[in-house]
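pls ignore typos typing on phone
OOB + seq
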Amino acid sequence: MWPEDFAARYREKGYWIGQTFDDLLRESAAAFADRVAIVSGEQRITYRELRNRASRLAAGLYARGIRPGDRVVVQLPNVPEFFDVIFALFRIGALPVFALPAHRSAEIGYFRSHTSAVAFITMDVYDGFDHRSLAGDGLTIVAGDPGGFIALDTLYSDGPLPTGPKPSDLAFLQLSGGSTGLPKLIPRTHDDYLYSVRASAQICRLNQDSAYLVALPVAHNFTMSSPGVLGVLHTGGTVVLSTTPDPATAFPLISAESVTITALVPPLALVWLDAADRTKPDLSSLETLQVGGAKLLDSVAERIRPALGCRLQQVFGMAEGLVNYTRLDDPDDVVLHSQGRPISPDDEIRIVDDEDSDVPDGTVGHLLTRGPYTIRGYWNADDHNKVAFTEDGFYRTGDLVRRLPGGYLVVEGRAKDQINRGGEKIAAEEVEDHLLTHPAVHDAAVVGIPDEYLGERSCAFVVVKPGVRVPKLSEIRAHLRDRGLAAYKIPDRLRVVERFPVTGVGKTSRRELRTLLRELITTSKG
Ligand code: OOB
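k done
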């Protein structure tokens, strides 16, 4: 957590105003009572109703034994129950651990054990997968058909509630894309997160007439807070839920609900552009398309206004904190060719070389950051924190950036061992650890290879044990699926090699090895 002098400064400057998530919902329910907060299919939920639902669910969860400080793994897609659940947990002061719908037993099991979670809240079946199969120890609460577990529906009730959390308390644990073995959890407080939400809402000029389409998974940091659904609920606008980002669903929703703003990752922006060129939809209400999560190519950025008739806003953020936006009135050159500038005047940015010395503006270096909504450490990860943060508390983002005049950043690459598969983050080491459990695999290295559509795809390099049959890609994939790994982490390609290349001195770090292998595959076009 932040040292006291920093915390005092952030309060004094009015960033941390002493607001909790429950305060936010109460204030919005008072100010915008009969306005529509959430639209999902035929369902329209007003602010007043949302607050009532969340309070009643809080009472029900409390009656089931969920207490302040308890961790609860939440895995819900874009459904209204997501809001009831998170605001109910916030009201109790229990911490949601945000999983994505794509996560499977490997991830969910780890979140549960790493956080000693007391409950798992999920849906019945989504995208052809039965999420009840992920149930483990502790309570399993299901939205939809409970199949023998606790039905979320039955928990809404009247009953006592504990005193709520303090604004400086942890509010939830968000996931890190990670670059090392196991995913890291990001502890965010009410104070720090809500500052980023309010400031983002202002930067994006949200108001009561804003309608935000949730096309990406609602539990991702981008969708939740940049300015996302929380920014909208803070300003009295309407959250429009889509179960899929597919243009066939999203385009009609945009015109039916007069959507003004939405957020996409670059590959989806490309899908929307192609679909719009073909189908000429009515997107006249759409004012802003935010694109972030991975680098947007200039050529794609340039097509957005002509094809969709709205302005582009680039968003370069991270669940650890720092979020950069191009501003709505920035000149085209900045909007098309930079990833924006930080939210806060107190976001400290350093761009450094390999020795941690600052580089001059315009030179590419490692991005380090510290500020009023950037964490000072991962949850229960003391050893990792020593490398992921500097001694004076700067977060080492692992991103390579260059600074333009005005403080705008251009993302030029990445130094962390992570693959960014169209915005979905894959830690090379996590997948390698799973590959090593395959009976034929002697050693494994996973690298990102350039891909026209996703930006990157993943390729597993494998050294096979002597005397065993060389496994096929389909077998490797099936093995990882059986281990319960999320589909997006399963390698797209497989390259079997006799041995791994070594550097001049004969020794190779995993990072150098990955670089060598990446070069091998990009030069051989294999
Ligand atoms: C967002 O958050 P995460 O935690 O899934 O991923 C963060 C990482 C960054 O460190 C960077 O490597 C990459 O994703 N990234 C971008 C980018 N936005 C994120 N790389 C290039 N250009 C961009 N515009 O992805 C996230 C969180 C909040 C808002 C938006 C995105």
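The longest strand covers residues 441-451. The domain at 22-32+47-165 is CATH 3.40.50.980 (Rossmann fold). more later
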